[in-house]
Amino acid sequence: MELSLGAVAGAVAQVFTIPVSVITTRQQTQPKGGKRGLLDTGREVVHSEDGWPGLWLGLKASLVLVVNPAITYGAYQRFRGLLYPGKASLRPWESFFLGAASKALATILTQPLIVAKVGLQSRPPPARQGKPFKSFSEVMSYIVEHEGPLALFKGLAPQITKGILVQGLLMMTKERMEILFIVLFAYLRKLRDTKLQQAANAATARAREVLPVVVK
Question: What is the pTM of this model?
């Protein structure tokens, strides 16, 4: 349920943030000496052949990419069950390893879509004579035809390195925080029970002091 809600939230967020991503990618791929500001780059996209829809180029690929966290979390749980079956609490390095491995797998599976998304949002290559791509499948076909299948995974090493560090540290911290909250809740529950017991004892003591007076 949480993964489904997260995917829906990620998809809605992509609809609003994809124009910024398109403009940023265009700025990063502009030739030297042709740098433009955010608004000027946005106008360039709008006044191009794509028009206003050009600000949402790569939206389909981005919507598909929201499954990346689901793949990561699913792989994490699967690896945990295979490598550490029945183990309730993991050591920090174990959590880091599982987080890194699951993120690496998710990155490898989705890297072609990431490459296609960048291709959609960038300026078309010179061989297309200024004709923009219309879909991420068209980008992938072009890359395979002109650069080979392995080109779909270009930039994979930096993506995996970043993912390993971020996801590994995230899962390691998550495991520690879960243990910390369990200990904290246990302490608060014990503290509450102690206070209730003290209050009960105090009420009993007062009752014993008052009882002889009532009897008399």
Answer: 0.59
